[in-house]
Design brief:
146 residues, alpha+beta, six-stranded antiparallel sheet, 3 helices, disordered N terminus, signal
């Protein structure tokens, strides 16, 4: 009798162990990988060239604070409006914004935009080829001219 009692206990333990492994729960789906945020700030915009040979620089922080310098003049501190900052953030991640080899033009301005993750140049020899560079030039012109 003792042998059959042990067989029953052993069989119960084995079945309990197998039953414990078989559940109706689905394995948890992996959490979607959060895409890392693209670092954008600080941003430096420079404007060089033109007939007079300007060399302007604007530094922009994530909160919209700016420091603008013109050759031979003291820096001017300011801030960009929230709407301009929103536009700048959009431009910095726009796929059509970056350019590989800008054209060179005489007496035009060259804008260079350096963010924490990318650098691009925009030659202004007339109207920019696409909307994103034109918007960036407008932001730069606002900083430098006004």
């Amino acid at each position: 009798m003792r042998k059959s009692h042990m067989s029953v206990v052993l069989a119960a333990l084995l079945l309990g162990g197998v039953a414990g492994c078989a559940t109706n729960e689905q394995p948890a789906a992996p959490a979607p990988a959060a895409s890392p945020a693209i670092p954008m700030f600080p941003v430096t915009i420079t404007r060089r060239g033109g007939f007079a040979g300007v060399d302007d620089r604007a530094q922009i922080t994530a909160d919209g604070s700016t420091v603008v310098t013109h050759r031979g003049k003291p820096p001017v501190r300011g801030s960009l409006p929230a709407g301009t900052m929103a536009d700048l953030r959009q431009l910095l991640i726009a796929p059509d914004f970056t350019t590989d080899s800008p054209p060179v033009c005489a007496d035009g301005y060259e804008y260079e935009v350096i963010s924490a993750s990318a650098t691009t140049s925009i030659q202004v020899c007339g109207a920019p080829d696409s909307a994103e560079p034109a918007r960036m030039v407008a932001i730069g012109a606002t900083l430098f001219d006004g």
